[in-house]
Each structure stands twice: as structure tokens, then as C-alpha cells.
């Protein structure tokens, strides 16, 4: 017992230390887990043979992950993915397998081994890709969706690959004595699972019926039996029982799929899709998500711990060469396919670099290939190391993509596109039309105020044009473009640029050349607000201030405060903020060269908080009754009644809110 607790402690401490460090330096959690595994495994030897057993347990994290992914997809969405699922996914597996197999043949590898190697390396890591895409917010991009389609096809392709590998068996089997050697141990249990399936020896027709029956059971249970079951469990009011039920569902489906020789991950994904419209979907997600994160983290640690420094050092040149060749070959195939399927820009590189590695199913297929005498033990040991190294390098590819390629692609795309010809001039010029500028623009247009909208992101401009909002591509910080946009005749300039430095520079330049023009600017925080005011902006609005103040008022009303009193408290809060603003700004401007917050600014801020407390106490001491206040919010539907009255369809009752 002590030994198991000690090992668990080592794994947990390694994750707790390395993952936050990796996230802090922008390396992503996956690389943190992998490095943690290397540290406690080959580097220090704190963990040993149990790593291989844990890896098979941790692979269940991939199963849970695909179940959760399925919960996010409705059947009609899956049907919409069919072209990329079958077309892009099928061509990726076939193209990668052919290119890698052909390359292996050039180095005098037996054709049977070459085909097996090509099929094994054609698959990618579902665990790493989906985890990283979720962290970086790429899951809902075109590149992320295309990557998911390919990964889903790969999971399906594992079944026919396993069925095909025995036909590539070498003529003289000699594997029993070496079954426990090297790389076989990395996935022996998983490979044996496929060989020992209880239904594997059934006649083809009966086996096919068994597979159809298993899939039908998953659909029937998910569609008709799951809701009554979850309702029954939910009535108990015990969260842990609901969690146990959710886990039992996932484990049961995995066992059923394994029994008929199908991928457990594929089965649970199907179950997730079936349950996507369930009223318990969100509850299932919140209960199972922690297990997914823990098991996936454990899986990545075991991959890192499974790297053998001895094998790596003895075959360093060979392993690096093969790993780079595999990544390059798969990236080439994916890049060409992205052109065929019209995946453009940064999405093309997300698809290309995300799937360029070998995947966790590679360990399963390598062990199975050894078992059916397709590959030799020595070759399996080396190829398993290639799979692990390619997975280890994938987070580095993501860093390259995120930090280097994507900013350059965006910049090149903007620079290559010529600025639009501005054929209309508005009363107001809006620089930057992101989430903030869009609302300002829509309000002005709704009140008949003409605007000229400028933005330096071509994709954003194209998107706005699709929803019939006229906008122009161009760099609003260039005075020449502002002149073309009609700044000489404009009444206002609204600065809503996402880049703080560019926004401050724009305000300075405009005020220098057009001192009489009224400039309104969006600020991110207090410091940004002070700088924009110092640059000359006439009106500065912090983007979250008023929405936060509004929510604070709603919180007071939810706690039982009368709406009139809540409104007064908001106004009092705002008044104190306005009164303290000049003094705070003057101190901040005078001490902005200092690192951090100056002592004088801190003292003023504490003074502000004290003034707020006193103002709140003063207003709360008001003893007027609710009836005496004579104020209450308009009733529900008031705006609709008022609009109808203005259209001449109702009487004056709307005016009083009746």
C-alpha cells in the first residue's frame, strides 16, 4: 500500500510543479505533462515498470474525451461534417500511409513491414490535438473542425487496420520468446485486448450482426433509457451517485465496444452524439470533465516516462531522422489536402501542424504487429520511440504556430490586401470594429447617424460585410487614410482599436493635427484610461466599467434592495469614482515611470475605497419607505407597448406603464 501511495504522490507532485510552469511560459499543459514524465522517469528513475500499466489505464482519458466531444455535437452537425470526415480524413490516412510506406521501401524495408509502418504512422494523437485545441481556442475554427474530422476518421480506421495487419505477417513467425521485449511492453495489454476479443472467432455474418447489435444498443440506451435513468438518479439528490452513473455509462459502452472488437473511443463518441440533446448533457459534462483531465494528464506523463534514454542515445541519429521524416511527410500530405479542401490562412497551418505527429493508437498497432509477426521486436522498440518523440515534439509545433506563424500570416494577409477605396464619408469615423466598436456603430446607425468604419483586420471586415455592415479595410492610424475617410468634415472620431499602443498613438496624432475634433476612446483598464486622456482624448470609457456597475446593481436587487435604492447606490458609487478620478490620474501620470503601483497612488486608492464605503452608508441610511420613493422600474413589456403606441396601435396606457 505504501509503495502505491508513494508512486501516486510522485506523479501528482510532478504534474503540480511542471504543468503550471509550462503554462506560465506559454508552453501549454501537454508539454508540461510530457516533461514531468521525462523528469520522474528516465531522468531520475522515480517511477519504473508500473508506467506501462498506468498508460493503459490512462488511455481511458481519450475515451472520456471523445464522449464529451460527442456531447457537443448533434447528429445533424455530424452529418454536415460528412464530406471532410470521409473525404479529408480518408485521403489523409491513405496519402500519409502511401508516402511513408514508399519512403520505407526506398530504404530496403520489406514491403510488408513498410505497409504496416505507413498505416501505423498515418494515425495522429487525438489526446494531444483535442486537448491543445481546447486550451488555445482553436476547436471552433475551420482548422480545428477539419482536424477533428480527420481524427474521427482515424479512430474509425483503427478497426480495419487491425483486421488487415495479420495479412502482412512474415512467413517465419518468431515472436513468442520476445513478446515482452522493449517497445512491445508499451502497448502489450492493449494489443492483447484485440487478439483476445471473445467474439473475434465468430463467423463473419454473425460477427457483423453482433457489431450492429452493439451499436444499436448504444443508440437505444442513449435515446430512450438514459433520460429515465438519470431522472431517477437525480431525485436522490446525491451528486456522487450521478457521477457514478455517468462513469458507469461510459465504462459499460467501452466494454461493449471492446467485446465486439470496436474502438471504445468510437463507441463513447457515438453515445455522446446520441445524448447531445439530452436535458442532462451539461450535468454529464461537469461530472465527467475532471476525470478526463486527470486521466489525460496521467497519459501524457506516462508517454514522457516511457522514453528510454538508453535507446534514444544509442540510436539518436536514426530516431531523429525517422521522427522528422514522419512529421514532414504527414505535414506535406495535410498541407496539400488543405488546398484541395479550401482550408485557408492560419486554419491551413492549424490542420497541417496539429496532425503531423504519430498517435497513441500507434502503440496499440505496434504491439499487435509484433504479436501477428509483421514487425520484429527490435523494430517495434525503435518505432515506439518514434511515436513517443513525435508526440513530444507536437506541443513545440503548436508554439511555433501560435507565436511565430500565425502573427506573421495575419500581418502578411493584412499587408498584401490593398486598402479599400472609401466611397462614402460619414459624420462619425469609427476606428476598430471589434466587439466594442460594433455596438457603438449599430447604435449610431439605428439613430440615423452616418458612420465610416475602418479596421485593420481583413477577416473582420469581410465578416461584417456578410451581415450587411459596410466597413473598410485599412490602417486607421495612418493620417492619409483618415483624410480619405473624411476626418476634415467629421464631427467625431471613435477609437475602439484592440491594440493599446496603436490606440494611444492614434489619439495623439489626431489631436496634434485636428485639435478641434472630438475624440472618444475605449480603454481597457484604469492605466489605459489615464494614458488616453493624457494623449488628448475628450471622452474615455472603460470597456467593462458600466457593464460591471450594471451587474452590481442587479446583484443588489437580487439581494432584496428596492430598485430605487439600488439605482441610487450605483449613482453614488459612480459619483465618488468621478470625483476621485482627476487626482488618481494626475498621480498615475506623474509616477508612471515607476515599476508597479507607487506608494502615493496606493494611498489615494485606499482613500477612494473609504469614500465609497461612506457614500454607500449615507445612501443606505435613507429611511424612506418603498411607497414614498414613488419610483419603480417599468413593467415587463413596457418597451413593446411604447413602440406600439408610437406606431398608433394603442392608447395612452403605455405611457404610464400599465
From TrEMBL:
Q: Where do the record's region annotations for Disordered lie?
A: 617-658
Membrane-traversing stretches: 6-23, 30-48, 54-73, 85-107, 113-130, 150-169, 205-225, 262-280, 292-312, 318-337, 349-370, 382-401
Domain named RCK N-terminal is located at 425-541
Q: Where in the cell is it found?
A: Membrane
* Primary location class: membrane
Q: At the top level of its lineage, which domain of life is listed?
A: Bacteria
Q: Where is the composition biased (Basic and acidic residues)?
A: 617-630
This protein's UniProt keywords: Antiport, Ion transport, Membrane, Potassium, Potassium transport, Transmembrane, Transmembrane helix, Transport
Topology of this chain in the membrane: Multi-pass membrane protein
Q: What is this protein called?
A: Potassium transporter
Taxonomic source organism: Corallincola luteus
Amino acid at each position: 500500500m505504501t509503495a502505491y501511495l508513494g508512486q501516486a504522490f510522485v506523479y501528482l507532485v510532478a504534474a503540480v510543479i511542471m504543468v503550471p510552469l509550462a503554462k506560465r511560459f506559454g508552453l501549454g499543459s501537454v508539454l508540461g505533462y510530457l516533461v514531468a514524465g521525462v523528469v520522474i522517469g528516465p531522468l531520475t528513475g522515480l517511477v519504473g515498470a508500473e508506467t506501462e500499466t498506468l498508460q493503459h489505464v490512462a488511455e481511458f482519458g481519450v475515451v472520456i474525451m471523445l464522449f464529451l466531444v460527442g456531447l457537443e455535437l448533434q447528429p445533424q452537425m455530424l452529418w454536415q461534417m460528412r464530406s471532410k470526415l470521409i473525404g479529408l480524413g480518408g485521403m489523409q490516412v491513405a496519402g500519409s500511409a502511401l508516402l511513408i510506406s514508399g519512403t520505407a521501401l526506398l530504404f530496403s524495408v520489406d514491403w510488408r513491414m513498410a505497409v504496416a509502418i505507413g498505416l501505423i504512422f498515418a494515425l495522429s494523437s487525438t489526446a494531444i490535438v483535442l486537448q491543445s485545441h481546447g486550451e488555445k481556442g482553436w476547436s471552433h475554427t475551420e482548422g480545428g473542425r477539419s482536424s477533428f474530422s480527420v481524427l474521427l476518421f482515424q479512430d474509425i480506421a483503427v478497426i480495419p487496420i487491425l483486421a488487415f495487419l495479420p495479412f502482412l505477417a512474415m512467413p517465419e513467425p518468431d515472436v513468442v520468446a520476445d513478446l515482452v521485449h522493449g517497445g512491445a511492453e508499451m502497448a502489450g495489454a492493449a494489443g492483447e485486448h484485440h487478439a483476445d476479443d471473445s467474439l473475434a472467432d465468430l463467423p463473419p455474418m454473425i460477427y457483423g450482426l453482433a457489431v450492429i447489435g452493439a451499436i444499436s444498443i448504444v443508440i437505444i440506451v442513449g435515446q430512450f433509457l438514459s433520460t429515465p435513468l438519470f431522472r431517477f438518479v437525480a431525485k436522490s439528490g446525491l451528486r456522487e451517485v450521478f457521477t457514478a452513473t455517468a462513469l458507469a455509462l461510459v465504462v459499460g459502452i467501452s466494454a461493449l465496444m471492446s467485446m465486439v472488437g470496436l474502438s471504445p473511443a468510437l463507441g463513447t463518441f457515438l453515445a455522446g452524439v446520441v445524448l447531445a440533446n439530452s436535458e442532462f448533457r451539461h450535468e454529464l459534462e461537469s461530472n465527467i470533465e475532471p476525470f478526463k483531465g486527470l486521466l489525460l494528464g496521467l497519459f501524457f506523463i506516462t508517454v514522457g516516462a516511457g522514453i528510454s534514454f538508453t535507446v534514444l542515445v544509442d540510436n539518436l541519429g536514426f530516431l531523429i531522422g525517422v521522427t522528422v521524416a514522419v512529421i514532414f511527410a504527414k505535414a506535406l500530405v495535410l498541407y496539400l489536402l488543405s488546398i484541395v479542401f479550401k482550408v485557408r490562412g492560419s486554419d491551413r497551418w492549424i490542420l497541417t501542424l496539429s496532425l503531423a505527429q504519430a498517435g497513441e493508437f500507434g502503440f496499440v498497432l505496434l504491439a499487435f504487429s509484433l504479436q501477428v509477426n509483421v514487425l520484429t521486436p527490435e523494430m517495434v522498440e525503435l518505432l515506439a520511440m518514434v511515436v513517443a518523440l513525435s508526440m513530444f515534439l507536437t506541443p513545440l509545433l503548436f508554439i511555433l504556430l501560435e507565436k511565430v506563424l500565425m502573427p506573421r500570416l495575419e500581418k502578411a494577409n493584412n499587408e498584401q490586401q490593398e486598402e479599400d477605396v472609401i466611397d462614402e464619408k460619414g459624420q462619425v469615423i469609427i476606428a476598430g470594429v471589434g466587439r466594442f466598436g460594433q455596438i457603438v456603430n449599430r447604435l449610431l446607425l439605428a439613430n440615423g447617424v452616418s458612420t465610416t468604419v475602418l479596421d485593420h483586420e481583413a477577416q473582420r471586415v469581410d465578416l461584417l460585410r456578410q451581415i450587411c455592415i459596410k466597413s473598410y479595410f485599412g490602417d486607421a492610424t495612418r493620417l492619409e487614410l483618415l483624410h480619405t475617410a473624411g476626418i476634415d468634415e467629421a464631427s467625431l472620431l471613435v477609437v475602439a482599436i484592440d491594440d493599446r499602443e496603436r490606440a494611444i498613438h492614434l489619439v495623439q496624432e489626431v489631436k496634434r493635427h485636428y485639435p478641434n475634433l472630438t475624440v472618444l476612446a475605449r480603454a481597457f483598464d484604469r492605466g489605459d484610461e489615464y494614458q488616453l486622456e493624457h494623449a488628448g482624448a475628450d471622452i474615455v470609457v472603460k470597456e467593462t466599467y458600466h457593464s460591471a456597475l450594471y451587474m452590481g446593481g442587479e446583484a443588489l436587487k437580487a439581494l432584496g434592495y428596492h430598485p430605487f435604492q439600488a439605482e441610487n447606490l450605483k449613482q453614488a458609487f459612480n459619483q465618488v469614482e468621478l470625483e476621485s478620478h482627476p487626482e488618481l490620474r494626475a498621480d498615475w501620470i506623474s509616477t508612471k515611470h515607476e515599476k508597479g503601483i507607487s506608494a502615493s497612488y496606493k494611498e489615494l486608492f485606499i482613500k477612494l475605497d473609504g469614500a465609497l464605503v461612506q457614500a454607500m452608508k449615507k445612501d443606505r441610511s435613507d429611511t424612506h419607505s418603498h411607497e414614498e420613493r414613488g419610483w419603480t422600474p417599468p413593467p415587463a413589456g413596457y418597451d413593446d407597448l411604447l413602440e406600439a403606441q408610437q406606431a398608433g396601435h394603442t392608447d395612452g396606457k403605455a405611457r404610464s406603464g400599465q
